Amino acid sequence: MNQTARISIYFAVASALAVTLSTASWAADIGVSPQYDTTHVYVEPGKMDPFVDSILKTFGGSTTQRVLADVTPTPSQTYSQLILTPSGSFSVFDFQTPAPYPFGNERNGFLVTNMDAAIASAKKAGADVIVEPFNDPIGRDAVIQWPGGVNMQLYWHTKAPNYQPLSFIPENRIYLSRYRVDDFIKSYQKFSNGKIVDDSQQSSAVIGGEKNSAIRVVNLSSAFGKTRIFVTDGHLNYPFGQERTGYGVANLSETLGKATASGAKILWQSVAGEKRASAVVQFPGGYIAEIHQDTK
What per-residue confidence (pLDDT) applies to 289? Predict the structure, then answer.
């Protein structure tokens, strides 16, 4: 695809999505709001249609137009589509060429108000910049890595997108060792201006372990949304650690029914009496997610 075609595609998507937010709302913080923080999903080749269909039937919502574009700083091609649901946003990629390293390892994309300020803040907080900022026709992107090996993409748009607020704020689910968790928390909290909502010992049953054993679970909240950290020895039962995001819903049983009817598989489900009803689900295309009943 030539550069002119790429620019036309990008601006077509931008015009369909973007409206300008007030200067004050952009200046408030580096982070914008959780509906702009998307989980990056790299589907199995050719499985984009069933994945998008299953997500929409499970959570509801809408999509942008699918485009074929180069979204990396070196030559590549992928089908790209955004899914906006009441429980969270998904950036979906079906690469038609091999995805250049390190793309595919980043768990999500965070919208920032200013890329240069965000990169400076991330570096000051202890993050590594593993993909330096690069331009695309509607903004800029970069990939950073936090202590503990947690990769995230930052993005900025020339025209600010305007998405509806979420009904349920998703959780960025991170598994870390006891040797690196405090380094991660210190760095990420400094960057995000986040607050620790809870830091406690919980039954390891929350990640499929023994009910009578305990693990440390830390919950943070910031302008980038929720982060839930599990401190483990890495002895995890499948599929835990495979899921990168947890999605809240009003009725878990009803949502799981919609998910399985649309081709998803339930890989694990909590038992009655646990503190929070939850399940781990694999959607068509290979994407694994946690879904939980959220009381807001």
Answer: 98
What's the Cα-to-Cα distance from 83 to each of 27, 189, 234, 242, 294, rounded to whole Å?
A: 27, 28, 32, 21, 21
Determine phi and psi for 207, rounding to 5 degrees. Answer: -125, 35
pLDDT in tens, 177-192: 999 999 999 999 999 9
Nearby residues of 180 by Cβ (< 8 Å), 6 or more positions away: 147, 148, 149
* Phi, psi of 214, rounded to the nearest 5 degrees: -125, 150
Count CA atoms within 13 Å of residue 138 on its CB side.
23
* pTM score: 0.88
The rounded mean pLDDT for the chain is: 90
Sign, Cα dihedral of 256, 257, 258, 260:
positive
What average pLDDT score do residues 237-266 get? 97
